[in-house]
User: Fold these one by one.
Assistant:
Number 1:
Amino acid sequence: MSGHPRWRRIRRRWPRSCGRCRPRSRWRCVSPDSDAGSRGILALRYPGATAATSAVDVLGPVVAAPTTALLLVHGGSWYRGDRSMYRVQQEKFAAAGHVVGSAGYSLDPGSVLADKLDDLRTGWRVFREHLATAWPTVRTVVVAGGSAGGHLAALLALDPDEQVFPDGVVSVYGPGRLDGWEPDPSLRESIDMLCGVAGVEDPEVVQAARASASPLTWLRSSGRRPPPFLIAQGSDDRTFPPEVVSGWATDLARAGAPVIVRVYPDTGHGFMINGSAAGPALLRDIDTFVREVDLDRSRGPRGS
């Protein structure tokens, strides 16, 4: 993940939306409403959407014919954060040769899991369509998310309503289950809002709703082989404990998914973005994982 001698070239941009960019040009024309145009980011708005969160921010790689792409899904307890949280990570992954998108989703207090997944499905489709046009050499697309984003990334890969699935998933301190454990009060509020049971006092109803929103539940009911997973967590994480982050790795393996679990010592929650000493190691592990998935795909389709 060291800096490529030409990586700064990805910052080049047109001063305005010029209408002259070739569809397969390495330099992407920045849309006027992009909130990150100064960093060479192209904001792809979701069709028909008006919310500011309804977009994927895309940064192209330094290589001319990339074979890999990453779609990042931000965290923030499902109701905070935004797609700009991963700007530094986007630049590092682009410098390593990947096309990198960062997807937004509804943060409205009244939104529930179905709303967020609808947005993420749209972002996933928009990103793939852009890759097919602008970067046709890409053959491997991995979805990666941190915390709540890791939860949503896992659900996208296990979504029974999706037709085209990610080739791999990176869940960084993202929960594999929301039921069967008791989060701290602020996180509990977000989880119950997500599951549509905020204010419900019946514990059985609450636990059932949390279970229905859990990747582990989706895995057990999917009936198909999941893609490869990289599960990463800090040894000292107090937000999502190990049993809900990496505890479902065994179930993934039993379902046929190649699974890698990385535990970073003396590390708490949020180390992907908070400047922790484990951050660079995590980015190297993600980069290696994406390349290994791509190498596996170059050898032919996975067995059923």
Note: Confidence is low (pLDDT under 50) at residues 1-38.
Number 2:
Amino acid sequence: MKKVLPILAIALFTLSSIAQTARVQVIHNSSDAAASTVDVYINGNLALDDFAFRTATPFLDLPAGVQIEIAVAPGNSTSVGDAIITVPVTLTANEKYVVVADGIASPTGYNPAPPLTLQVFPMAREMASNSANVDVLVHHGSTDAPTVDVVETGAGAGTIVDNISYSEFQGYLELPTADYVLDVTDATGAVTVARYQAPLATLGLDGAALTVLASGFLDPSQNSNGPAFGLYVASPLGGALLALPVVPLSVSDFDVSNFSIYPNPTSEKLNINTNGIDLSQYSMIISDMLGRQISKGVTNSDNSIIVSNLNKGIYNLTILDGNSVIANKKFVKN
């Protein structure tokens, strides 16, 4: 069993032996199941053991002014020789950095599958530049999400992030401490993909500096049924990332062509990915290819339908608002 080192005792370095240091926070945002926990080595020495997906370290002191090697290995690694990636970096003395692990390590099962990488943002902050504000660093770390905008609709701030793509950072937003509603839209701003609450005032975050990450998959069915898309917050103090609460969209807010169902084919249960739309008030009809209605009802609380009682074949799933058809999807029952 690997020895668990205290996070602050990074590798073999002690503060007394380091002439120059930089402050670094590391965030695990790789949604690949094969990287659900990883080991992090610095210059060949184990620094973080079993570092879990959607967690962050606090800001740590690392050597500056000299090249160091940061290596990421599977959680069951025995040495740095098991590393998946190794990234050489030279940090600037007295600078602060946020480092985010994104991407896919598995050779199959994910589409698209950009490789596992470490994205580095310099000039990071541990507190807001103005104590009346909350400073927010935004990072797009969802491998299958397109270029998006973030539009604030609660306080009327409008577009606060414009055309951010996978792996990119948006420099710090210096936001007055208030409760916000964030719409994630396509790059045109015309289609709202999801809506989230950002209750900065309610949570008493005056003076805080945070990192908000797009995390998970828009279409889990194409990505080994991995974690769904969401916005998550990392605190400078580290720990588990906090999920921003989802605000259900109305059907009029959403381009229904973006509904997806998975797994397809299926044998037991059909999941409906609605990107935040609450389907509990809508009805579902399953019909065969001759148009005969097989069943009618509503979804389970997790937006799923049990189909184990159906015979093998191809079926239509129709979502209705009263008598109006919202969406129609084909699926195969094994």
Note: The CA atoms of residues 69 and 88 lie 4 Å apart.
